[in-house]
Write a structure and sequence with these properties.
The chain is an all-alpha fold and 232 residues long. Helices cover 26% and strands 0% of the residues. It has helices at residues 19-24, 26-30, 32-35, 56-67, 94-97, 158-169, 190-200, 225-231.
């Protein structure tokens, strides 16, 4: 059975996807919500679930939401910008928890500074506390050692350590030296050898990106990486 459009009378589409109806309908140009057509009363701006003839209570809620669109109103204090769940009048205990100290994050569960409710030790006692250093070096929360995090921890991922060990001890078939292969050998391809040294360098200022060829970062943190994916 071929569907027929209620707006233009042609077959193959309905009123919602009709191009003629979209061009002539001012409600569609405003928003998709206002373009809705109720199948009960035939009016714009709502559907069957919020129709006044079927459910008057939901109609009042819909009208209130349209009147206060973009600024939610709290049912406890009547002010805008929050709801009953986050209202400090209805929940006075939240006032001391939502305050921040020196711009650091504040836990909404225990009220302490330095973590949030997702990493709160009172909720998740099995998780180890995050250790911070003043020199800026990262510390693994799994083993407590400096220089890596849990994503690259050798205890959690021993195969990665073996892979790096094999890569550092591989022998080039061209020159016989360790640390590279024939593809990045300096005697055959000095440019690839220089790029390999920059990639393996721990000094971030010496890194060179493979996407934009700029120094100071790599391809993972390049700002043009998203543009490259969009172009493909």
């Amino acid at each position: 059975m071929t569907r027929t459009c209620a707006s233009c009378g042609k077959a193959g589409h309905n009123r919602r996807t009709c191009t003629l109806h979209r061009q002539n309908d001012e409600f569609f140009m405003k928003s998709k919500i206002e373009y809705r057509i109720c199948s009960i009363c035939g009016e714009h701006g709502h559907n069957v679930l919020t129709c006044g003839k079927v459910n008057p209570k939901k109609e009042k809620i819909r009208i209130l939401r349209l009147a206060t669109r973009g600024s939610r109103i709290c049912s406890a204090c009547g002010k805008s910008g929050h709801n009953n769940r986050t209202c400090i009048v209805a929940n006075p205990n939240r006032l001391s928890k939502i305050k921040r100290t020196d711009g650091r994050r504040h836990c909404l569960h225990c009220g302490k500074v330095g973590h949030n409710s997702r990493t709160c030790p009172t909720i998740h006692p099995e998780r180890k506390p995050r250790i911070s250093r003043s020199d800026g070096k990262r510390i693994c929360s799994q083993c407590g050692k400096v220089g890596h995090n849990t994503r690259t921890c050798p205890i959690l991922f021993p195969n990665r350590v073996k892979k790096n060990y094999r890569r550092a001890n591989r022998i080039c078939t061209q020159c016989g030296e360790k640390g590279h292969n024939k593809r990045t050998c300096p005697t055959i391809n000095p440019e690839a050898a220089a790029a390999r040294k920059l990639r393996n360098s721990k000094n971030k200022s010496q890194r060179r990106c493979k996407i934009c060829n700029a120094a100071g970062h790599n391809s993972r943190t390049c700002s043009q990486r998203a543009l490259q994916f969009l172009g493909n």
